[in-house]
Amino acid sequence: MEVTPNPIIESFTATDTIVPPDTEITLNWSVLNSDSLSLNGTDVTGTTELALTAASTTTYTLVATNARGSSNAEVLVTVIIPGEPIISEFSADSDGSLLDEDGDPSDWIEIYNPSASTAILNDYYLTDDPNNLTKWRLPTTTLDETDHLIIFASGKDRADEGDELHANFSLRASGEYLALTKQGPAGIIILSEFDPYPAQFPGYSYGVNPDGTTLGYYTSPTPDGINGTGLQDYVRDTTFSIDRGFYDTAFDLTIESNTEGAQIRYTLNGTDPTSSQGTLYTVPFNISSTSVI
Questions:
Q1: Domains plus CATH for the chain?
Q2: Which helix (H) or strand (E) holds 23?
Q3: Mean pLDDT (10-residue bins), the chain, 293 residues
Q4: What is the model's pTM?
């Protein structure tokens, strides 16, 4: 076990992450080595949870601090208006498995109507800019109950009802803002929002799992179809404290990953480690002879 004096956020969770408006949720956290603690700028030092009412989609950021530095963790709580369509799936790094009418492997966005009645899409918008919530207007159309609508995020700006739809923006694979909005009596209403979505990968899509409360990556995208249960996250690459090369003295090697809770296994003979083969990394280890790690 590695001992560190730095502040550590062991966990930061919400009782629900996708909820109707004005739903009471509780944020829970466990923190070590922290002198002070803040939640979205408000001091919560000495506490382990906070009950609040989710009025709109919000990213909650917990920051733990001591004299040696700080660490932070985030929880996204998405507020969805019942009976309204949502962004259920999208692809921001297409591998060409779904081509648009021009034969291009454009990004795409799937809108899904989860309600038991037909949705009338009048004054609905898609945007990738939180400062411009009406960036691209959908043509007025209807979406039957449990039906889907595919819109290519190609930047080609085509919005003729009955034809293939193309938004006037594309999606960044590195992650960005994405939302479905509509014009309400008192202003623009955000119906579905990713603020932001995480980094995406070629051939994968991302969206809402069948439980309606969790998000995931899909190794087999299902545009215009029902989502399966996706992968919760991906493991970030490992980093080594010493680069490959030739050395005339022994040294201790540290292996790290930015994925919280990731288990790292390694071998010293050039074979591939697996979940059952190799040594589980726990602390830096000494390299004193030629090794392929």
A1: 8-77 (2.60.40.10), 86-218 (2.60.40), 235-293 (no CATH)
A2: strand 23-32
A3: 76 86 92 94 95 89 93 86 87 92 96 88 95 96 92 96 93 96 92 93 92 88 90 77 85 81 83 84 85 84
A4: 0.65
